[in-house]
């Protein structure tokens, strides 16, 4: 997400006025497992996840048949370190938006269970776009 640091949040303040910030609270282990299951096809940038979007043949790109690689920063030890660093950097950002009364937090482990709540919030804040026929 963005902003990830207090410096980025302050820079964003100079560009626009936020009236809604969404924070997704996902358990550390869930994030670590998802990121650690990510593999990429280097030439194209196609991303696979071995748990919910695996290639047809394990370790091989669906379109080219070339090998997939796991980025160094997606290996479990690196992911754990990245998540710890992110948590420390993001805490003041979360507190900033919480103090402004614009932070909305959602918790869970599955996108399809969190999304309806996020969608309801966004729908209540953003008017629907009507087609010319509906106007």
Topology:
Layout: H1 6-13, E1 21-25, H2 28-36, E2 38-40, E3 47-49, H3 76-99, E4 103-107, H4 111-125
Parallel strand pairs: 1-4
Antiparallel strand pairs: 2-3
Core attributes:
135 residues, alpha+beta, Rossmann fold, two-stranded parallel sheet, 12% strand, globular, Adenylat/UMP-CMP_kin, nucleotide-binding, transferase, Adenylate_kinase_lid-dom
Classify the fold: give the CATH topology.
Rossmann fold
Helicity, in percent? 40-55%
Q: What is the CATH class designation?
A: Alpha Beta
The strand count comes to 4
**Could you give the distance between the termini?**
35 Å
| Count of spatially separate domains | 1
The topology string of helices and strands comes to HEHEEHEH
**What is the name of the CATH superfamily?**
P-loop containing nucleotide triphosphate hydrolases
What does this protein structure show overall?
The chain has 135 residues and is of the alpha+beta class. It has one domain (6-100): P-loop containing nucleotide triphosphate hydrolases (Rossmann fold, 3-Layer(aba) Sandwich). The chain contains four helices and four strands, in the order αβαββαβα. It has helices at 6-13, 28-36, 76-99, 111-125; strands spanning 21-25, 38-40, 47-49, 103-107. The strands form two sheets. A two-stranded parallel sheet has the order 1-4. The protein has a two-stranded antiparallel sheet with strand order 2-3. β2 (38-40) and β3 (47-49) form a beta hairpin. α2 packs across α3. The longest helix has 24 residues, at 76-99.
């Amino acid at each position: 997400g963005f902003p990830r640091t207090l410096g980025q949040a302050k820079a964003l303040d100079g560009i626009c006025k936020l009236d809604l910030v969404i924070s997704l609270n996902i358990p550390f282990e869930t994030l670590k497992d998802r990121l650690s299951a990510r593999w990429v096809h280097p030439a194209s940038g196609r991303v696979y996840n071995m748990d919910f979007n695996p290639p047809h043949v394990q370790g091989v790109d669906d379109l080219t048949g070339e090998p997939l690689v796991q980025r160094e920063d997606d290996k479990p030890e690196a992911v754990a370190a990245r998540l710890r660093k992110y948590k420390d950097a993001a805490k003041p950002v979360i507190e900033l938006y919480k103090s402004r009364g614009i932070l909305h937090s959602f918790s869970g482990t599955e996108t399809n269970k969190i999304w309806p709540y996020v969608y309801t919030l966004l729908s209540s804040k953003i008017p629907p776009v009507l087609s010319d026929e509906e106007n």
